Please model this.
Amino acid sequence: MKTIAIFAAATMLFAACKKDMNAANTMQAAKAQVSTDALRTNTIKHTVKVKGTISGTNTVTPSNACGAGVPLFVGKGTGVSSHSGSFTWAYSDCATSLHQDVDTYNNGDKIFFAQTDQAVDPATGLVYQDYIISGGTGRFDGATGNNRLFFTKRDCTTYPVCVLEGYFEGTMTTIH
Model:
């Protein structure tokens, strides 16, 4: 009788352990599937605050491409981002449209920006431009976010070339 009781207890214990192992394996498989799905659908996101500086030029160029009497703005320069390092920037837009800016990093990765607004900041008196991040290439593929660019210098005494300096701050979300 003792042998049957011990055997029954061992069988029940084994069944309980097997059930716990199956539950643990099922849980581990579910976590692995979530991780795999996150990687496959690029849902692992990383958001950072970004600050930096820019300097460069904006050249006002007469152009028939923009319509009669509407100049083309061609901007280019360099910058440094607290998150991404040194970059060059460039745009070429009609004076009647918002800027579509491209920042290019040393390894060739790019961030694309679209200007959404321009105004004067009442607190500082500085002209600013707001931008949204509309994607990128390389490590910035699928990036989103926004920046506000404050101009600390807009010197157009050498017209048609204006010298620009400023700083920006905002956020950027990248997908890993």
